[in-house]
Design goal:
Layout lengths: L1 E3 L6 H13 L18 E10 L2 E10 L5 E4 L2 E3 L5 H4 L2 E4 L5 H4 L2 H15 L6 H20 L9 H35 L5 E6 L5 H6 L1 H7 L10 E6 L2 E2 H4 L2 H23 L4 E4 L8 H10 L6 E5 L12 E5 L2 E4 L1
Parallel strand pairs: 1-11, 1-12, 6-10, 10-11
Antiparallel strand pairs: 2-3, 3-4, 4-5, 7-8, 8-9, 12-13
Helix pairs in contact: 4-6, 5-6, 5-8, 6-10
Length: 328
């Protein structure tokens, strides 16, 4: 599907609404109040479609000063974000370039979300590790302030070492799964010898205890998966430092397509792909390569200012104007 319209017509709003309706949250903001039109007190998104040949309907209701409410096929969900474990939607927006050009925390969050989608039994590891880490850091600060003994740190050191090693292994496994598809997609888009390189070592009780004095002084655990990074590399160049914006865009697109392939392979149902303003900085050859890549990935919605931006014929064209969207 291709959504076309002038700049500011609402194409990104349409894409964002679909993401909210299928995942329970916005790819743009974590402030739900920003999803409600100015001058109104509530908003509602309803998404209908099929998943694996079965009908699906999700509803998200947002009200000012109230929590989100979500339902799937009429059943109320305890939390709107639970939709992401039932329905798969992957999104590209221009600000997703931060996955390559941003700091390590952005990449850790990105690959931990990928972990949740393609290795669901291990999806809770990032949150479990973060909880243990917070407890150890609190114990470090209490000890540093003379309010507690070092004995209180030891159990959390064990937890951080155990969960940190598990999270390290899970992330490495995800990169191993992603890298072949990422390299293939990147090569097709003209990004040579693209690889993913994990930077960091698994924590152990011994390594944590070896730096205990320093951690107590700082009140912070100085090693573990929370300080690791993933280098996104092309031809031995770290694209964060030595990649052009065009190469960074190609890397994010290649990651997205590789993940979509894995999600489809593991779940049997391709994810919905939402590609916002993805064509604007691609040359004609790369636009053609991208257009040839997405049909096998299930349903894809691409936004552009004109239908001519997409090589070939889309299955459907939606014309977007302020406040309206209609089939061409």
């Amino acid at each position: 599907m291709l959504a076309v319209g002038a700049n500011g017509a609402g194409k990104t709003n349409l894409l964002e609404a679909i993401h909210v309706g299928s995942q329970g949250f916005s790819p743009r903001t974590r402030s739900d109040s920003e999803l409600i039109r100015f001058g109104t007190a509530a908003s509602r998104v309803v998404v209908r479609g099929e998943r694996g040949g079965l009908p699906v309907e999700s509803t998200i209701t947002l009200r000012l000063r109230e929590g989100k409410r979500a339902s799937l096929n009429g059943a109320v969900l305890p939390a709107a974000e639970q939709l992401r474990s039932r329905l798969s939607t992957l999104v590209f927006t221009p600000d997703r370039l931060a996955v390559v050009k941003g700091g390590p925390a952005v990449r850790r969050a990105y690959f931990d979300r990928t972990l949740g989608r393609i290795a669901r039994p291990r999806a809770g590891l990032p949150a479990a590790y973060a909880s243990a880490l917070a407890q150890r850091n609190a114990a470090l600060r209490r000890t540093g302030a003379g309010l507690s003994s070092r004995d209180a740190i030891a159990p959390w050191t064990e937890n951080v070492a155990d969960l940190g090693s598990q999270l390290y292994a899970a992330r490495r496994d995800v990169l191993t799964l992603l890298e072949p598809g990422f390299g293939t997609r990147a090569e097709a888009l003209g990004l040579a010898d693209a690889r993913l390189r994990y930077e960091g070592e698994p924590p152990s009780r011994e390594s944590l205890e070896a730096r205990l004095e320093r951690d107590i002084e700082r009140g912070f655990t100085g090693l573990g998966p929370h300080v690791h990074d993933v280098a996104i590399v092309s031809a031995n160049r770290d694209l964060r430092l030595f990649g052009s914006q065009g190469e960074q865009r190609l890397a994010v697109l290649s990651l997205l397509l590789a993940e979509a392939e894995l999600v489809a392979e593991r779940s049997g149902v391709p994810p919905l792909l939402l590609l916002d303003d993805v064509l604007s900085e691609l040359d004609a050859a790369r636009r053609r390569t991208l257009a040839e890549s997405v049909p096998g990935q299930g349903q894809t919605l691409i936004t552009a200012t004109a239908a001519s931006a997409l090589p070939g014929e889309p299955a459907q064209v939606i014309e977007v104007s302020p406040g309206h969207a209609r089939t061409a």
